Amino acid sequence: MTKMLIEVIGLSIDDVIQAEKGGADRVELCQSIVEDGLTPSYGLVKSAVEIARIPINVMIRPHNKSFVYTPNDVKLMVEDIRMIRELGANGIVLGALTEEGLVDEAVLEQLLYEAEGLQVTFHRAFDMASDQQEALDTILKYEEITTILTSGGGRSAFDYASSLKKLIDQTKGTHLTIMPGSGLRVEGLEAFYQEVQAEALHFGTGVRVDCHYEHDISAPQIERVRQATKGMI
Predict the structure, then answer these.
(1) Which of 13, 59, 86, 233 is deepest in the core (most CB within 10 A)?
(2) Whole-number Å distance between alpha carbons of 215 and 183
(3) Which residues fall within 8 angstroms of residue 227, CB to CB, at 6 or more apart?
(4) Tens digits of residue pLDDT in 37-94
(5) Shortest CA distance to 56 belongs to which of 71, 64, 41, 46?
(6) Taking a C-beta distance cutoff of 8 angstroms, is the pair 157, 189 a contact?
(7) Domains annotated on the chain, with CATH
């Protein structure tokens, strides 16, 4: 039986250590979570890759103004991807939209060109798209992208289970995995899974002490998630 892939947000080396200790399968590494996650420093990426035995996927997001990027933004993102690839990370987490809320294919193609050999997750910029169906159809054209991280369009994935189920059904048999994330907790997880039938789940505050980003990742909390997801797929 295939086990559920559990990804957790890591903000520090201690987070990475606790994530691995608790049984997480992958870390999404970023900084400035109060800004919804920005590209982490060279030092943090280097240390995380060196210390971890689980895959490290690194956020590529130069600012929190929007998911619309200027040529200068793109140049910086390309350089960050190059650095992350050279440091030996498993993958990157990115997303780009046009002013109209469409997936920005011109920017995406520049980033994917530099990302050769890395796993690619399209992050929750997907939830900000003006038309999720159109966004999905566009992303499906790019086989380099293996995952879409999405809440289904709202603040909490728990509240958008039906939308997530539809996305999961639409991507069965494709190169894409829909990974629900945002607001997930151990409490209510089993009923949520029964509806969406996801193969991967993404956790932020739900695996931290007191469920708050001011506190560290809790290995026992990840163990609770792992226990709760046993036998789900």
Answers:
(1) 59
(2) 16
(3) none
(4) 999 999 999 999 999 999 999 999 999 999 999 999 999 999 999 999 999 999 999 9
(5) 46
(6) no
(7) 5-229 (3.20.20.380)
